[in-house]
Amino acid sequence: MTIVRAKAPGEIVSVDLIRAEGKWIYRFQVVAADGRRRIVDVDAEVGGVKGDEGHR
Predict the structure, then answer these.
(1) CA triplet 16, 10, 56: central angle to 5 degrees?
(2) Reported pTM
(3) What is the Cα–Cα distance from 35 to 47, expressed in whole angstroms?
(4) Number of CB atoms found within 10 A of residue 42's CB
(5) Are 42 and 26 in contact (CB under 8 A)?
(6) What span, in angstroms and rounded, lies between the C-alpha atoms of 51 and 16?
């Protein structure tokens, strides 16, 4: 969660574990102080940010 908070500051409101491209991915949904939602994917094996859908 430290990785996600550094990438997308705000409140983590949801975490899912999904299988994508043969890998396990943690998908975090973060809501910023201004109300914008952001999705951040983290590779469960190596702990690095795999994808970031930006602000919504």
Answers:
(1) 70
(2) 0.81
(3) 26
(4) 22
(5) yes
(6) 14
